[in-house]
Amino acid sequence: MTTPTEPTPGDVVSAALTLHELTSIPDNSPRWSNIAEPTKWTAAHTIEHIADALLFYSGQVARRADAKLPVLRDGRDAPASEHLDNVLSAAHVLAALLRDLAEERAFHPSGTADVPGWAGMAVTEILVHGTDAARAIGVRLDLPENVCARTVSRVFPWIDPSLARPSEILLAVTGRISVEGVHSDPDWWWQSAPLNEWDGLPARRDVKPGWT
Fold first, then answer.
1. Are 94 and 26 in contact (CB under 8 A)?
2. Which end of the chain offers a freer environment for a tag, N or C, measured as fewer CB atoms within 10 Å?
């Protein structure tokens, strides 16, 4: 069996399963109210954001969107454990939709993405914001290095993969840690369109992230 070189739908689920360690903190713990830096959100809200992001991606992919659609939300309050379960459910939904997407593409503000592009963005959302929440509540996450490697090479192709472990590069390029040689741009963005359309420059966002 050939080892994939780009992020896969299965990588989205693998990333979501990584967050299971966060369930070790009970729902009634005050830690869930700690701020998940560098965002201004609580740890609990950060987990909710991950599920929101995955559902937004799912809507874009399911409808083969050519513009940004509203984010799917139900508006109900829920404990952190339910938000974590929602992340896993949303990851499975997105993975199934990406398998169906096949060779088609769908709009994302960072570019019209194919399957590896969507998968790489989803993995970034899960593992980076998952790390934000984990630090806030005092839990250590072991990020899957193979999933991080595929993600970095696909959606951050301007980064030299030899500079550090893939998980460290993923966290460095998104501004969570410092790694020598990895520029942490506060306006970092993804190369979500296929790599054959990449202009060779680091991608930069033209809209501010929702968590600032």
1. no
2. N
